[in-house]
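sorry for the late reply, my laptop died twice this morning and i had to redo everyting from scratch. anyway the thing you sent over, i finally got around to it. pasting the sequence first so we're on the same page, its 254 residues, then the predicted structure underneath. double check i copied it right bc i was rushing
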Amino acid sequence: MSSFTLALVTSLAFATYAGSATAQSAVPAPPGTGAARPMLTLQMPPIPDPVPVTLKPASTAVLVFDIVDPICPSQPKCVKTMVPAISALLARARKAGITVGYGTRAPTISKWLPEVAPAAGDVTFVSYAQDRFFNTELDKTLKAKGVTTLILTGWKISGSVLYTSVGATLRDYTVVIPVDASLGPNEYEEVIGLYQILNQNSANPTNITTKIANTIPCWLSRPLTNGSVIAPCSARPASARAPAHARACAGASR
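ok and here's the structure:
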C-alpha cells in the first residue's frame, strides 16, 4: 500500500471558538478575602477548519501516550471518546504497515488499556517528561525507521501531546494531531492545546493538526512572522517545488 488516508469521526467543532474562551472554573480567593475571583473571558483567533491529507505509511508513525490505568479511566473523555478513536486508528495504521509506538512513565508501562494495548513489533519506551523525546531513544528509533511524520495521540492535548509536538518539530518531524484521539479534561485545555501546537515558536512550518473524519482532516501552522498566521493545508500549492510535506497537504502522498 502506497498511501494511507486516516478516517476519523468527531463531534467537536474547534473552529467555532472565534469569539472568546472562558476558563472552566473560578479561581479560589486568597485566604481571608471571602470571595472567589471571576472567570476570565479572552478573545483569541479562530482555529482553522480541517482539510484532508494523505500520508505515506513507510514514513509515518502513530505514537500513543498514557492510555493507561489509572490515568485514562479517571477521565470520562479519555474512556468514552479517545479510546474508541485510538483503537480504530491503530487498526487502520497497522493494516497499512505504519510504525506504532507507545510511551508512558515506568510505573504504568505495563498498564495499557486492552483496547489500545501494544501489539507484537510495536515500539514501547519509558518516558521521563511530557516531551516524550526528552532523555529517550525515541528520535533515534524513529529516524532509523525512516519516519518523518508523527501522528500524536493520547492524554492529553495540553500536556504530553503538546510538548512532544514541540520536541518533534525541533527535530524536523511533521506533526499530525487527530483531535478525537487527544483531548483534555475541559474545553479550555483543548482549545489552548491546539492553539499552542499550531503557534509554537519552534514549529516546523508544515505542522499538521488533524480532526478525525471520513478523511484525515488537518490544520497547517505557518511560521510566526509578523504575528501568528494559521492557514489550512489547502492554502499551500501542490507544486513540484513545494516540500513533500506541503504536497501531502494538497493531497499527494508523502
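Residues 68 and 74 are 10 Å apart (CA to CA).
thats about all i looked at so far, will dig more tmrw
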